[in-house]
Amino acid sequence: MRKVGSVVLSLYLLITLTLLPAAAQKRKVTVMDFGYGTVKKDVAAIFGTDQDIGKGIADQLITQLLNQGDYRLIERSHLDKIIAEQNLSNSDRADPATAAKIGGVLGVDAIIIGDVTTFGNDDKHTNVSGNGNTGWLGKAAAGGLGVNKSKAVVEITARIIDVNTSEILASVTGRGEAQKKGLSLGGGGSNGWWNGGGGGGGQVDFGSSNFQETIIGQAVKAAVTEVATNLDTKAASLPPPTEKPMPQAPPLDGQVADASSSDIIVNVGSKNGVKVGDTLAIKRVDRVINDPVTGKPLRAIETLVGTLTISSVDPDSAVGKFSGTGAPKVGDHVKRQASN
């Protein structure tokens, strides 16, 4: 029994270790509100007022990606807060550089941006009686009876942006269509697209059944589903997340201020970028090479006395433990090591 138990445990560990790298490679992403500037007039014509369809579509895409599980997504409220603080315009939503900057603040590996490129119709209306057709939505005129044949079309593009390089890692598209045929009665009747309120200043809820039962809602869902599926397909082929470049430490040239005990005090601190745990080099100037013509110093010849591991820091000074064969003295130079 012990032997069987050992075999089972070994198999479990092998499977677990095999699956861990795949899980670790899931990209941590967020989804920007999609841009919809090119279809803004179509949106206003359908809903009777401007509606932020880019936010509604982004919300639906987040839900789809969460359900499919190929990406790790951050809480949407964090992104909304930054967008509000940055006061981004509609055109900024699809800008890779802007997206990368926001993604960097959020601490994600990549950010998904996109545009709604089509949000319209291919409506047909046959007037039976009354004063005729009133517009491209196929809306019956007052006192008229008509037959509407409505077709909604929604097209979306989405791109995955590396937040550290602004590189476009992948680009996908999605298209959705939905159709409806029926009668429309004049006297303030329906256009067959949207009867759920939200016009006249209210915001349409893209997650509501009221919206999703309309043909434009069905077309949106189909387009978002195709985009999500295509993004999931790309997930496995994406390169590993790039390492964010480490900021280069500022130059440092301080001096030993006190060496009377084992705690060496130097005259540089947090203002100079010194942190607890830093290892600094203590060097002593042996001689200075001067220009034979001008007499100005050209180069200082230094020898390494030892190293100082910083244990405490304040704005203008730091304290550390010395290690080395020499003995530090007041006035010795304190510099960063080449490896820091």
TrEMBL record:
User: Record's Gene3D superfamilies?
Assistant: ABC-type transport auxiliary lipoprotein component, FlgT, C-terminal domain
Provide GO CC annotations from the record: outer membrane-bounded periplasmic space
Q: What is the lineage of its organism?
A: Bacteria, Pseudomonadati, Acidobacteriota, Terriglobia, Terriglobales
Query: What are the Basic and acidic residues biased-composition ranges?
Result: 330-340
Give residue spans, biased composition: Pro residues. 238-250
Q: Which UniProt keywords apply?
A: Cell membrane, Lipoprotein, Membrane, Palmitate, Signal
Write down what this protein is called: Flagellar assembly protein T C-terminal domain-containing protein
Q: Specify where the region named Disordered lies, as residue ranges.
A: 234-256, 316-340
Enumerate the Pfam families for this protein: CsgG, FlgT_C
Q: Which InterPro entries match?
A: Curli_assmbl/transp-comp_CsgG, FlgT_C, FlgT_C_sf
All copies of the Flagellar assembly protein T C-terminal domain together span 264-325
